[in-house]
């Protein structure tokens, strides 16, 4: 188990005094590796809370550059970041925020081969990207590498966060959820449909909360992955509901009959 020095004990004191987390839980977070795919409306605010939680190693993945229109919801960036790569800007933010965190970046477009390399050895992947082709490539790579996946999405006034562990015999993967019809870059974009900035923040912080639950599984009372469950967040009502995804016995991503 990772040991926490005196300075770290002070920094994370509000976590440590929670019986559901405690010193053991905080030490466990310090030894975890999370891969964050997408540093936009979800990944940007999510990263702030993931770093603040003391997750010891972060791999940040995004091939895009910061645009002025991003600043309405991507709270990690400021006007000085416009025109610069999101991955580089995000790494700079993390190292200024907490120099003891280990940060790796990838600023190249994800395909199936690159996804496999990026997720290998991680404890958890959080995907907040905006197209199905990338999401499905990441999901398939996670199943093959036996790495759990949190998938988060947002648009207009709605969002969803789901926890998938398709490498486990009775648990669904993200492909079980959406099927095979979306193996292309065909998502609607927030530029077309609009998005309330605070809605992205709600989905991002909920995803961060759930990531901590997954990473603490087996280390503290707060750990509860809730595999195969999808949470729907409605910003119009507002409200939430949850449903369970069944494993698809014909899924080509996670079922033996599907070619796994």
Describe the structure.
This protein has 260 residues and is an alpha/beta fold. Helices cover 35% and strands 17% of the residues. The chain has 10 helices and 8 strands. It has helices at residues 6-11, 13-16, 22-30, 43-52, 86-97, 112-119, 132-145, 174-178, 190-193, 197-215, and strands spanning 33-37, 57-61, 102-106, 124-127, 149-155, 158-164, 229-234, 239-244. The chain has an 8-stranded mixed sheet, sandwiched between helices. The longest helix has 19 residues, at 197-215. The radius of gyration is 18 Å and the shape is globular. The protein starts with 5 loop residues before the first helix and ends in a 16-residue tail after the last strand. The mean pLDDT is 93. Residues 13-252 form the THIF-type NAD/FAD binding fold domain. It comes from Qipengyuania polymorpha. This is HesA/MoeB/ThiF family protein.
